[in-house]
Amino acid sequence: MKIFTALYFCSLLYGFASDDVNSNEPRIDIVDKTGSQNFGFYFIDQFGDIKNHFLFKNHEVGANHYTIHTSNPLLIILTKGNFSAHPVFIEPGDTCEIYFDGESYQIKGQKSSEDLSIFSALERELGYVFPDFSGIKLSKRLDLTYLLEQHKKRYFDRKEFLDNYEREHIVSSRYAEVAKQAIYYKYLRGILYPFYVSGDTEKLESTDISETYYLQVLRILEPASFDDSLLFLEDYRLFVWNYCRFLSREYLGTSEEFSSLFECAKANFSGKTRDFLMFYILKNTAGQVFIVLKHVFNTS
Fold first, then answer.
1. What is the rounded distance in angstroms from the CA atom of residue 96 to the CA atom of residue 90?
2. Which residues have CB under 8 Å from 39's CB, separation 6+?
3. What is the pLDDT of residues 202-251, one digit of tens each?
4. How many distinct structural domains can be found in the chain?
5. Which of 82, 169, 253, 282 is least enclosed by beta carbons within 10 angstroms?
6. Cα–Cα nearest to 116, from 68, 78, 81, 159
C-alpha cells in the first residue's frame, strides 16, 4: 500500500504537469510593433511558474513575434523593462499586435479594444498586478481590523470601477466577468494574508489574531465557491492554495504540514481544482514529499 501511495504522488505530478502539453493545442500570438528594444512580457502559467519573454525576430511574419502554445486563457503583463505593468487578457486562438504611443500600450486583435484594455485601465486607476500587501510584514503590533477594512475598500473601489467601465464602454460579457472574478478572488486571498507563513515575516499564532478578525474572515469566505472553469486565473489558484493553508494553519511550518495540506485538499476540494491543489502542494512542499517517499520506500 505504501508503494502505491508513493506511485500515486508521482503520477499526480506527471498527470497534472502533462495536462496542458499538446502540440495540437490552440495558440496565442503576440506581435510587437512598438519598435522598442525594451519591450517584453511575462505571465504566470497554470503551474505557478513565471514565464519571461523578450520577443525575437520572426522573419516570416516580419515583426517581433512570439507564439504561446496553450489551451488556457492568459493574463499577460506587458513591460518596458521597468516597474510599469500593462495587463492584457488573451484567449487561445487570438493574435494581439502591440503598439506604443509614447505613453501607453495600444493593443489590437480579434477582440475589441475595450475588451483588451479593461485590465490595463484597472491597473492605471487602482492597481491590480502587484500584491495588495506588498511591503507589509506581519507583526503582533499590526492592526488587522484596519488592514481588513482597507482591503475591503480596495475591492469595492475596483468593483465600482469595473461597473462604470462596463457602462461607459462596449465590453463583452466574457471580459467583464473575467475581470470581476479576478478582483473577487484577489480580494478573498488577501483576507487570508495574516495566516500566511513566510520567511521574511513574523508568524502570527492563533492567539495573536482576534476573534473579531477571524469571524469576519469566516463571514466573507462563507459564500465563496470553487469553480474548475476559473483555474486559468492566477488569483483563483492562489486563493485555493491559501484557503487550504488557512484550513491547515495549525500545522504550517511543522513536520506535519505536507500531510495536513494533502488531507485537507482531499477532504474539502473536488474535480480539477483538487487536482491542481494536490499538484501545487507537492510542488511547494517538495522537501517534505521527498522525506515521506524515502520513508515509504525504506519501510516497505
1. 8
2. 32, 54, 55, 64, 78, 79, 80, 98, 100
3. 566 656 777 888 898 999 999 899 999 999 999 999 999 999 999 998 88
4. 2
5. 82
6. 78
